[in-house]
Amino acid sequence: AMKPAQEADSARIAIVGGGLAGSLLALALARQGHGVDLYERRPDPRRQSAGAGRSINLGLSKRGMQGLRMVGLLDDVLARSVVMSGRVIHAPDGNTRYQAYGKDAGEVLHSIDRNELNHLLLDRAQQHPQVRLHFEHRLVHADKAARQLEFDTPDGNVVVQPLWVAGADGAFSAMRRELQHGERADYHQEYLEWGYKELTLAARPDGSSVIELTALHVWPRSHCLFVSHPNLDGSHTLTLFLPFEGEESFATVRTPDQVSALFAKYFPDLLPLLPGLLDQWERHPTGSLITTRTAPWRFGDWAVLLGDACHAVYPFYGQGMNSAFEDCCVLMAALADHPKDLAAAFTRYEQQRRPHTDVLAELSKANFVELRQKVQSPWFIARKRLDLALNRLWPRSWLPLYTMIAHSTMPYGEALERSHRQERLLRTALAGIAALCCAGLAYAIGVKP
Ligand code: FAD
């Protein structure tokens, strides 16, 4: 049975997707006095019994923090997160090396449990009198001409007619599909040949961590890669990245012996720390990773997309959630700049944002190579040190690319351009120094020009 559109909806904003971006945007809009209906496909995740979901954590950095500050939640989130002040690189022989993220105390990342963050955002949204939450509402169709959304719910389909819609329904966005249906739209998606599996590295019985707590840990191998984020209880969430197919891959590493052999070969130091490895391997699913680029992100004065719905990126720069929260900030600013013209606000938002998230997609791909291989190379380490040294000498004018991406809110494209400029300057300077050395040497040994 299909219920008719509710009259009152037409004065309210609909948000499709109650994940990270959707719930943050709901709060931001409500705080501006808008009525918001948040529609989420899943049942209320806060009803799940404690411990039911696996802990999956994310690295929160400057851009995401700015979004949380906008809705007054930053302090609550930081209180629930673990500071990561640098990376610990684990070599195959078990040796470790620490690389600080930056020279300032503020240049750190914060590891936060994704579910906990989502619950907090939903709680606060629910407490706001302007927000209504609708769980088990899956968007199935949008009628752009009639300005209606249709949801599949346990009680049958429901049609609503909101003032306008924000699509924050993730990488496989139904709102994107509906918004672009019949339009001159571009959509590009690309899967990584590697998948991932999450494992938990438990804390000791006394709650202390078995590896350095306040850092991101990386076990870089050219053939596979582990990254870990700390949790408040002293445990760590390990994410193994491994090809889907090939000689050593998710396809061939299946039996307990094969799993043990993979760990013995590449991560012998982790084996004794993971007594429940085989059980976890069996129970935890293998995830895939997708990059998407698309345009347009908007339809007239009625619909707009944000977060993974319009730019899913590989997780290797740790910017997916951060950029989704930054979208919320840019969208709110565009709405404030064009209070009476939604179409202009949406256009402005897309123009300000899309070129930069396209850059982020490329940076996230490039960082896959960096995490796997380069963090081990002496040349790369020397280059990182030089970058940090130059940053210390000229803190305002010399900024490493990672610093600009993770610890600033400079638009991604500008950060990349600036890093290219610095690179050129450095090359010229090094070439100049080399030329001077040659000239000096020639003079010293008495070569006449
Ligand atoms: P989502 O969080 O995916 O939320 C979308 C919501 O929409 C979901 O709740 C879904 O149920 C709902 N939905 C879907 N379809 C419908 C429908 N038809 N109707 C109604 N609702 C619907 N980011 C970082 O910033 N730092 C990190 O360290 C980091 N690490 C990551 C590690 C991994 C392994 C992965 C996979 C991602 C990582 N990310 C990280 C990225 C981050 O998880 C995403 O970018 C972020 O969750 C995007 O938020 P979103 O709200 O756009 O989408």
Short description:
The chain is an alpha/beta fold and 449 residues long.
Plain-language structure description:
The protein has a 7-stranded mixed sheet. A 6-stranded mixed sheet has the order 8-2-1-12-19-18, with helices on both faces. A 3-stranded antiparallel sheet has the order 3-7-4. The chain is α/β, with parallel strands linked by helices and 449 residues long. α1 (20-31) runs parallel beside α4 (114-127), α1 packs parallel to α8 and α8 (320-337) packs antiparallel against α9. The chain has helices spanning 20-31, 62-70, 74-79, 114-127, 174-180, 256-266, 277-283, 320-337, 342-372, 378-393, 401-407, 412-444, and strands at residues 13-16, 36-39, 57-60, 82-84, 86-90, 96-100, 109-113, 131-134, 138-143, 148-153, 156-160, 164-167, 186-201, 216-220, 225-230, 236-243, 287-295, 298-299, 303-305. The model has no long low-confidence stretch (mean pLDDT 93). It has 12 helices and 19 strands. The radius of gyration is 24 Å and the shape is globular. The protein folds into 3 domains: 7-81 and 111-189 and 290-367, 3-Layer(bba) Sandwich (FAD/NAD(P)-binding domain), CATH 3.50.50; 192-288, no CATH class; 378-444.
